[in-house]
Amino acid sequence: MAETDAVSFWDELTSPINLVLVFFILYLVYKIVKSHFESVEPAAPPPPPMPKLRKDMTVAELKKYDGTDAEGRVLLAVNGIIFDVTRGKRFYGPGGPYSAFAGKDATRGLATGQVAASDTEYDDVSDLSPDEVASAKEWEDQFKEKYDIVGRLLKPGETPTVYSEEDAEDKKSL
Ligand code: HEM
């Protein structure tokens, strides 16, 4: 009796329909195993890092760095220090909530809570209240933590510093 059962089980297994199913299952297992060994599509390479910029600028020179040209670099100044805020492009880039500060001296705006800046002439901000001065200083400190320093915003008649290669690498000081 047991022999009959064994034979019928084997017959069952090797019946054409079951053979087709067995091969289909083996094929699926093969596909799954293969997919594990296949390399995943390589991600798009990150854009090459922007060359570091080390330069003192006038208000007029700063103006072109508003992120709208092909390079897309964004700079802004706070308390006479120019920062490269390209990393914060979602804030300052074209269409960003703080794009009014891009390529500008943002000191007065940040000190007074106005998202607006003038690019017409040097603003000595000497009329700011002590609270506003403190607020601008807080922003300056925050920018120093987060962004690279490019140089100084030049007052009219001031001469730019000539930075060496080493200065260019030392981005956290003036
Ligand atoms: C209703 C008022 C405001 C709200 C809800 C608001 C909200 C925010 C938020 C959520 C961020 C992003 C923070 C992050 O992800 O790190 C931000 C960033 C910023 N906010 Fe505002 N903000 C307001 C008003 C202002 C005003 C009045 C100024 C200046 C005049 C200002 C200047 C900035 C700047 C400069 C940044 C970017 C800082 C960076 O580069 O990391 N915000 N704000």
TrEMBL record:
Q: Which InterPro entries match?
A: Cyt_B5-like_heme/steroid-bd, Cyt_B5-like_heme/steroid_sf, MAPR/NEUFC/NENF-like
Q: Which UniProt keywords apply?
A: Membrane, Receptor, Transmembrane, Transmembrane helix
Q: Does the keyword Membrane apply?
A: yes
Task: Give the matching Pfam families.
Answer: Cyt-b5
The answer to whether keyword Transcription applies is no
Q: Give the family from UniProt.
A: Belongs to the cytochrome b5 family. MAPR subfamily.
This protein is called: Membrane-associated progesterone receptor component 1
Organism equals Bicyclus anynana
GN (gene name): LOC112054714
